Amino acid sequence: MSLIEVVLGLAASMNLEIEQLDVKTVFLHGDLEEIYMEQPEGFTIKSKEHLVCQLKKNLFGLKQAPRQWYKKFDSFMVKHGYDRTASDHCVFVKKFSDGEFIILLLYVDDMLIVG
After folding, report:
1. Residue 80 vs residues 49, 52, 77, 95, 97: alpha-carbon distances, Å
2. Locate the Reverse transcriptase Ty1/copia-type domain: which residues (predicted)?
3. pLDDT tens digits for 21-36?
4. Residue 99 backbone class (left: φ over 0; alpha: ψ -120 to 50; beta: rest)
5. What is the pTM of this model?
6. Which of 7, 70, 82, 100 is an S-S bond match for 96, by CB 3.0 to 4.6 Å?
7. Which residues neighbour 40 within 8 Å (Cβ) at sequence distance 6 or greater?
8. Which of 53, 56, 61, 54 is nearest to 25 (CA)?
9. Closest by Cα among 92, 100, 68 to 3
């Protein structure tokens, strides 16, 4: 049985609310760590053709983009009191003192929130 089936079964048995989200242009939201590229054709400056460009923002198709998005999302969730589960690092849980809880499942740019 998959994790999503378990969470949906839990939601059904406990009469919990379920929300689904999709993040648009998700891979453009990550922060880059020292990624360099050759100067694009047509943008070179005379006598500086040997220099490279440092990327400040993600580009579509960049191999590092999914990882950088996850790192940014993970740090946001942990900062806001969510715990990452040991069995699946794309499942975040937040427990409240009154016994209530929120479960968030992340799959690339799709989220399922149960609580």
Report:
1. 46, 38, 5, 12, 15
2. 2-115
3. 998 888 777 777 778 8
4. left
5. 0.77
6. 100
7. 53
8. 61
9. 92
